[in-house]
């Protein structure tokens, strides 16, 4: 395997599927099956899931809700998605642990780095819910930080597009896809891969990122096995 321990980042929005809000059960099931394929290869899997399908902190300000309060609401939204994903994974026969950045004792464990690593070593899928537990951060930053903490080999950012393009492919027909990019290049060309905090964390810690289409069956498995799918952002 090219990667033995991965951190998979899924956006909350992707969970909506064809809906405009909430969780699409078909999409959830599809993701569980994709994750099972890599688990069956013996890969250690950690997951961070966003909350954009339910609530985003920035949107709170428009409704008069305080930004920090909104961010906590967003973190709790990610926990709802994480619980749904945990359930789907377990229904597909996988062992899981949900660890939260905010203490929610009746529902899941708090994030403890050593314990997370132990779960992974025992073959459990670890889902990190509630972001890093602090406002003004995103789940992309959570993905970068947790990946570094658990010494993951890579951050796999599952999206709706199949990689990073020179321009927005939906607006510019001449846009082409990068197969490999350096952090420096991505930065200089202003390519929007993750927010700056998340991106910089990966760059400074030499943690590669792969941006890929999570909705295409088999993609995740192929990346782990070493196929060139999506765009790889790396320091070398
Ligand atoms: N959030 C936060 N701190 C974190 C992670 C998330 O405050 O460490 C809040 C933030 O308001 C964010 C929301 O949770 O907008 C949902 O996460 P995100 O927008 O990253 O989800 P995604 O876009 O991946 O669906």
Task: Explain the overall architecture.
The chain has 236 residues and is α/β, with parallel strands linked by helices. The chain has a single domain (5-234), classed as Carbamate kinase (3-Layer(aba) Sandwich), CATH 3.40.1160.10. It has 8 helices and 9 strands. It has helices spanning 25-39, 57-62, 67-91, 113-121, 139-149, 183-188, 196-204, 219-225, and strands at residues 5-10, 44-49, 96-100, 109-110, 125-129, 154-159, 180-182, 209-213, 231-234. A 9-stranded mixed beta sheet has the order 4-3-5-2-1-6-8-9-7, with helices on both faces. Strand 1 (5-10), helix 1 (25-39) and strand 2 (44-49) form a beta-alpha-beta unit. Bound molecules: uridine-5'-diphosphate. Residues 11-13, 50-52, 56-57, 70-71, 74-75, 77-78, 131-132, 134-135, 137-140, 142 line the site of uridine-5'-diphosphate (UDP).
List its traits.
alpha/beta, Carbamate kinase, 9 strands, 37% helix, 18% strand, globular, binds uridine-5'-diphosphate
Q: Which outline best applies?
A: globular
Q: How many beta-strand elements?
A: 9
Strand order of the largest sheet: 4-3-5-2-1-6-8-9-7
Point out poorly predicted stretches.
Answer: none
- CATH hierarchy, class: Alpha Beta
Bound molecules: uridine-5'-diphosphate
Helix content: 25-40%
Put simply, the count of helices is 8
Strand content range: 15-25%
> What is the N-to-C order of secondary-structure elements (H for helix, E for strand)?
EHEHHEEHEHEEHHEHE
- Main structural class: alpha/beta
Count of the separate structural domains: 1
- Let me know the average pLDDT: 96
What is the CATH architecture term? 3-Layer(aba) Sandwich
Could you describe the largest sheet, including whether it forms a barrel? 9 strands, mixed
N- to C-terminal distance? 20 Å
Name of the CATH superfamily: Acetylglutamate kinase-like
Rg: 17 Å
Q: Would you tell me which CATH topology applies?
A: Carbamate kinase
